[in-house]
């Protein structure tokens, strides 16, 4: 590798100060005394150079992690009034603490006191933050200096790492907004090149219908917002290829999607009884984290295997078992209950050594799933196209879950993720699937085990080799399974609760950033990635797509079809030509 040229003239950039001589300077941290009429703020990038015999000039660059000001010459707190009145001579001195990000060449010597320090800009800033070594850069927003901040795609696409963990207080940390901006940047920045043809995103939405308008332009999209997107090298507009799924309306045999704000372009999803039995989906009904530690889990797998062997499909998704036709989830639960309470058949369905108490525990939990699941597991609806959640037709697929009870939400997330994982295993690692899940602590809590948690752990530990990348958002990373958080190459933090900020899961944040995270405004995130030793503060633009019905500027042209589902555009996922990067041509 060619060694970067670190020689520089003291006049090449305005000096902001000099390395302090009254405090220890180390290769990993040093302080800068600011010159008169100069300032440094938190997150500024600072560079200083010192000569080393036999090596030449050595550049030490870092990020400002603390700034303090004091009166030199004052002894008592009340001296500030005398100094202000001109009675006591004193001087205001500001000191900036700089945490080292890069030393080039790698000769780890401390900056010498008195060395000139400058604010890094342009190529020098890129070198200090390792942006010059990123072959594939994904813009994630702007730094405090107004210049773009990037994340290395190789730590997002599985090449050298994968997965993203986003933490912060609900409603303030803008976790979902940042995750969507990250996806938008990946798809629209051109960083994927031809791989964008096979790059998809699967988004689970649990908070209202806000994500059902990603393909609508935002009414707040004006010149200033377009300029903000242009600064980070992105076109400003909605997601150009998006599909939407929602559960069917309860007690409606037409299979109409259960949504109110968006009346077209949404497909209903459900699972037929035949699929439920043939694919052994029963374990996902018992998705509470503590279930796998109970004895009745043996009964779950026994019954699931029996249903797979015995159930024969009939028209419109129903099944026939033992000569009895079952059309609804209620029918299936009643049938299983009858078999497990029958003395003659209990052994065949639950196992020969299963006790009555274990069976009763299983039946209590099975019957409690009737209300949550009866609308999405059924055999009384017409087998219509779009019935199963599929990521084939669009680049971004949104699965709306907010109208489902929590237990049904767990079922859907577990079954869909398991199906997508199997599909990726069969297809090979050629494509990418970014899976965005909010409230990850609900699906993969730190304690206990469940089928959904096992699927998420599998994705976290070997998903990047399959091309499956998890983007998980949660209020508290301390309540999420450790292995999922630790396998996330990119960690992002928004506004944090003070008690949560003190947890060891946020040890990657310097003390000053932990404190700042408790004050962060919406739209400000701290992004940590493997190549940069210090997390970077990022401000990302307001969404250019509608985040609710009231922000929608209207549907895109030809967004709906006669049957109410989004039409498939065979060219929707093709990457734009480099010359057309700024237009709204879909990928």
Automatic annotation (TrEMBL):
InterPro entries: P-loop_NTPase, T4SS_component. Gene3D superfamilies: P-loop containing nucleotide triphosphate hydrolases (3.40.50.300). Residues 548-587 are annotated as: Disordered. This is Helicase HerA central domain-containing protein. It comes from Pseudonocardia hierapolitana.
């Amino acid at each position: 590798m060619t060694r970067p040229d670190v020689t520089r003239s003291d006049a090449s950039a305005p000096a902001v100060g000099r390395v302090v001589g009254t405090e220890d300077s180390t290769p990993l941290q040093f302080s800068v005394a600011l010159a008169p009429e100069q300032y440094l703020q938190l997150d500024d990038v600072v560079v200083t150079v010192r000569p080393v015999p036999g090596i030449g000039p050595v550049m030490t660059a870092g990020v400002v992690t603390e700034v303090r000001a004091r009166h030199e010459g004052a002894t008592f707190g009340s001296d500030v009034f005398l100094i202000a009145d001109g009675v006591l001579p004193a001087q205001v001195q500001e000191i900036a603490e700089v945490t080292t990000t890069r030393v080039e060449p790698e000769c780890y010597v401390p900056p010498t006191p008195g060395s000139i320090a400058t604010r890094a800009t342009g190529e020098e800033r890129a070198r200090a933050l390792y942006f010059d070594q990123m072959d594939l850069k994904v813009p994630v927003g702007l730094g405090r200096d107004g210049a773009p901040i990037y994340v290395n795609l190789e730590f997002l696409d599985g090449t050298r790492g994968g997965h993203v963990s986003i933490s912060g207080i609900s409603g303030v940390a803008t976790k979902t907004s940042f995750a969507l901006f990250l996806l938008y940047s990946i798809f629209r920045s051109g960083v994927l090149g031809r791989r964008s043809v096979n790059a998809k995103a699967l988004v689970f939405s649990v908070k209202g219908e806000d994500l059902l308008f990603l393909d609508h332009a935002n009414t707040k999209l004006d010149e200033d917002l377009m300029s903000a997107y242009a600064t980070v090298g992105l076109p400003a507009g909605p997601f150009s290829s998006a599909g939407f799924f929602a559960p069917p309306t309860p007690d409606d045999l037409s299979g109409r999607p259960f949504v109110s704000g968006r009346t077209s372009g949404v497909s209903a999803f459900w699972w037929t009884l035949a699929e439920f039995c043939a694919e052994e989906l029963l374990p996902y009904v018992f998705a509470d984290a503590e279930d796998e530690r109970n004895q009745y889990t043996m009964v779950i797998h026994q019954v699931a295997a029996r249903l797979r062997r015995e159930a024969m499909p009939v028209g419109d998704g129903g099944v026939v078992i033992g000569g009895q036709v079952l059309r609804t989830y209620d029918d299936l639960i009643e049938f299983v209950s009858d078999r497990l309470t029958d003395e003659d058949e209990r052994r065949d369905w639950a196992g020969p050594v299963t006790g009555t108490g274990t069976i009763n525990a299983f039946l209590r939990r099975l019957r409690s799933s009737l209300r949550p699941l009866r609308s999405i597991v059924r055999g009384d609806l017409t087998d219509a196209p779009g019935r199963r959640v599929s990521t084939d037709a669009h680049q971004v697929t949104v699965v709306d879950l907010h109208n489902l009870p929590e237990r049904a939400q767990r079922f859907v997330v577990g079954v869909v993720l398991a199906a997508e994982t199997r599909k990726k295993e069969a297809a090979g690692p050629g494509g990418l699937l970014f899976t965005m899940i909010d409230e990850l602590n609900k699906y993969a809590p730190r304690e206990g085990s469940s089928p959904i948690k096992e699927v998420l752990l599998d994705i976290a530990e070997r998903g990047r080799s399959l091309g499956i990348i998890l983007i998980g958002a949660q209020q508290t990373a301390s309540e999420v399974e450790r292995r999922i958080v630790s396998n996330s190459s990119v960690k992002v933090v928004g506004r944090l609760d003070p008690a949560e900020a003190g947890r060891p899961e946020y040890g990657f944040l310097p003390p000053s950033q932990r404190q700042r995270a408790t004050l962060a405004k919406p739209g400000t995130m701290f992004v940590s990635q493997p190549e940069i030793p210090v997390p970077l503060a990022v401000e990302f633009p307001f969404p250019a797509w509608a985040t609710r019905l009231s922000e929608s500027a209207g549907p895109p042209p030809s967004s709906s079809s006669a049957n109410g589902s989004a039409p498939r555009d065979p060219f929707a996922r093709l990457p734009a030509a480099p010359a057309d990067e700024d237009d709204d041509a879909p990928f």
